[in-house]
Amino acid sequence: xxxxxxxxxxxxxxxxxxxxxxxxxxxxxxxxxxxxxxxxxxxxxxxxxxxxxxxxxxxxxxxxxxxxxxxxxxxxxxxxxxxxxxxxxxxxxxxxxxxxxxxxxxxxxxxxxxxxxxxxxxxxxxxxxxxxxxxxxxxxxxxxxxxxxxxxxxxxxxxxxxxxxxxxxxxxxxxxxxxxxxxxxxxxxxxxxxxxxxxxxxxxxxxxxxxxxxxxxxxxxxxxxxxxxxxxxxxxxxxxxxxxxxxxxxxxxxxxxxxxxxxxxxxxxxxxxxxxxxxxxxxxxxxxxxxxxxxxxxxxxxxxxxxxxxxxxxxxxxxxxxxxxxxxxxxxxxxxxxxxxxxxxxxxxxxxxxxxxxxxxxxxxxxxxxxxxxxxxxxxxxxxxxxxxxxxxxxxxxxxxxxxxxxxxxxxxxxxxxxxxxxxxxxxxxxxxxxxxxxxxxxxxxxxxxxxxxxxxxxxxxxxxxxxxxxxxxxxxxxxxxxxxxxxxxxxxxxxxxxxxxxxxxxxxxxxxxxxxxxxxxxxxxxxxxxxxxxxxxxxxxxxxxxxxxxxxxxx
Amino acid sequence: xxxxxxxxxxxxxxxxxxxxxxxxxxxxxxxxxxxxxxxxxxxxxxxxxxxxxxxxxxxxxxxxxxxxxxxxxxxxxxxxxxxxxxxxxxxxxxxxxxxxxxxxxxxxxxxxxxxxxxxxxxxxxxxxxxxxxxxxxxxxxxxxxxxxxxxxxxxxxxxxxxxxxxxxxxxxxxxxxxxxxxxxxxxxxxxxxxxxxxxxxxxxxxxxxxxxxxxxxxxxxxxxxxxxxxxxxxxxxxxxxxxxxxxxxx
Amino acid sequence: xxxxxxxxxxxxxxxxxxxxxxxxxxxxxxxxxxxxxxxxxxxxxxxxxxxxxxxxxxxxxxxxxxxxxxxxxxxxxxxxxxxxxxxxxxxxxxxxxxxxxxxxxxxxxxxxxxxxxxxxxxxxxxxxxxxxxxxxxxxxxxxxxxxxxxxxxxxxxxxxxxxxxxxxxxxxxxxxxxxxxxxxxxxxxxxxxxxxxxxxxxxxxxxxxxxxxxxxxxxxxxxxxxxxxxxxxxxxxxxxxxxxxxxxxxxxxxxxxxxxxxxxxxxxxxxxxxxxxxxxxxxxxxxxxxxxxxxxxxxxxxxxxxxxxxxxxxxxxxxxxxxxxxxxx
Lengths: 556, 250, 329
What we know:
heterotrimer, B: about 250 residues, alpha/beta, nine-stranded mixed sheet, two-stranded antiparallel ribbon, 6 helices, C: about 325 residues, seven-stranded parallel sheet
């Protein structure tokens, strides 16, 4: 079906999830590596889960328990832990404290406690200070780099004997009946046409009694599992795209800063953040909902324009941008949570499950806590020698009874209000919701998948970056440390009927310059991809590729 | 065949370095470390020889604090059979100190072949292999880009500036490995699991007093603004003159 | 006052330019430490003695010549034994070598036998009392170290091209000498040397990189870049993203994208406008030359020497001039 004249509906051009590749019914390879519990993804959720489980097993062994040797594995697609992790980040320390009760806040890999905070409403040239909304108050929270948190958690996990396999993306779920029995990794060393080339390493099967999907935002195997098992949610999951830069500056920033308004279009949901990481390091980023309304809306470019505003320019002008990255954020909240996040031999945790609370822009502590709940459920299931869905449903019960579900429920309609109204109306509704603890404006607001939102074809003024304060997408990708081999097979599945207008949409949607419109044609440069997953939300499908591909974030 | 491979833990070079507060070391905050690429090719060469010669054994040796165990484990996960950490507080710059300590460990080891990477990018001195060879009194071939071992003899190719050299040597020998000898394998998942169970011996060692000390480290100055020296082919003689006399690169 | 030893590299029966640099560096060092003598050792095939006598012009007081047809190619074991024997007998403050494939092989062997350490790739050498102070690039040139050498003699290999051969005539008394060991007794035998067959230099390590961009207009025109690289003799060929994307060159030649950084002594940008990611990949090069017909191309902002002009006219002329200049070394 063609697009309505004057607009593009991304969903019409999107390939379906390749379930036949993602859900395998083959028997595991005879050479399979056996694990008892396998965490797919070495971010805060997977690592916190692995640490918690290793401790429970250790305590059981010391108490004379009968569990025996339990092999815990963490598979991570990045070449090293943290290299694919990106967040703001202002962290609520509640989960890390629970994970390490013997440590104090000063032991944690935080940069500093949040001091002063300011919120501004921006116009093109002015910044109007507004009172900090209650949802955005961060007293007691800590400024941090998620890369540093993840590296630190990795050390703790290794010290507890967890097997951490970096550079091994999980390509498919191994299944038997409805049960998940493990995963198959991607091969490495393929040539451009998928043929084995120098350094070829075949896929490896890893079997596990329990597989915990901790893939992060828009997890491919998590989506595949939910679709395969027809597990729905009241609303579809929706996403925002965050683009972030780390700057080394001569001038210090004395507060955490959030902004609303310009340069985000009035019909889009979004805002910026700017956090001091140290006296001469600043994180600055912009987050915009992927239900934006025009083919030419471009989050990377908005961030570049935003830095020309005096509020940012004055600080950054004398500095240097040292790292750049982007990532999607699941913003659907409570009503977008899958009805169950467990099944036979499987649980879904963290961002992959959608545990993000958008009003406060937080997900790390939910991710860690959900990983820890999954660990407890896994431990109990191993003790019972029953890893069925019936046994693992304890995990959902723990989440639902915890602050995770409580926080998400309280802000259940806030983000959704923006999809059905414009910024100002939604702002009023959000205010009401805050006052009434989420009860208003009433019942569940229904939302659409981001890809179903039509995009108007629009004119735009090309932005010319100066290479000092503002950067092209290619320069940006360079600063992500992306060192993907240029000659691996494309991991992106381009859908049907790609018109020049669709190519235009993709070229603006992707912050990493993977897509370019060359006249009538879509040009794809898969090696540029930094795994933010925006493409999987609105454009060509993302699938796991050779391990170690993608960005190499150090400070994000 | 008994093969030793000396491996070094080095930071990823694809970053902007900062100088530590002591002014004599690089600030390691946020740096990513891995086995030196040249050393990984040396490990690969050792593994290929081992697999062709039944009953062979590959030992990976690294000198430094406990963090170098990571580097040894990397070699073990690629397939080396055992590891030795020569434990010191830090990795000194002085190459003689390092070579002496390695030679002391290697001498009684009965190795047929001792492999090094030809240079490590961090200290960029590239001398520990041949120094160790001299201290052991065994033949040495540096910067090899091909290698054959048969009947107790070896042959190798070296890339020199503007020439290739083909050499033959007797065993035992020390070889340093250049790029192009092979492509290092990725550790497999099974290899990583197996490496955890392989022996890694930790031997505290006393370093001799260094003869070379780092007084200070600095970052090189920023580039000065560019200049255009002329137009068209007519500017070529001036360019060549500047390359010879000012830039001194020709 | 202290004497300084210099090892002069030869190729066949010719003294290499780095050999003149070693003598010059040794001379400067001897002068800085109060005016000692410079003793230069040259090993080579028949005819080397005649060439070596000119080293007096660059400041050698004594020229020790080992002339032997079996030694027209570098023999590590003979060179090591001969240099060690001479250095041990001479009471030198320092021994100067060159940081070439040969020097990287020889200097550490000599140092180990003497029981001293060695610093290669020296950018400068100074005398401070009992210490020699050497600047040495680390971390692929991203950090510069100042090192103190306390051992004696200090064995130092100079980076090529940091000292230019300088006239400073001294006696240049030629002493002919024998190799310290029989060239036939070596344990590592060179079975073949293929001149001019130097393998493909790696981009990251080549002292010279010649890179081409879209200004070359077509794949076959990349020959201009290859010809210029071969005129330098020690150059690797690089390319921009645009060029590799168009399939003119393999992706392994690409500079700037996917994190590949190069910092050669000399970077020649041919028809490259200078996208920022390309600049990021090569801006740490020591000297940058750019040839481009657009005078506003960003590459000129970082080029030490820019020529505005048609690459099809400028590059062949430059290739000829470089070939001519190289002939004299």
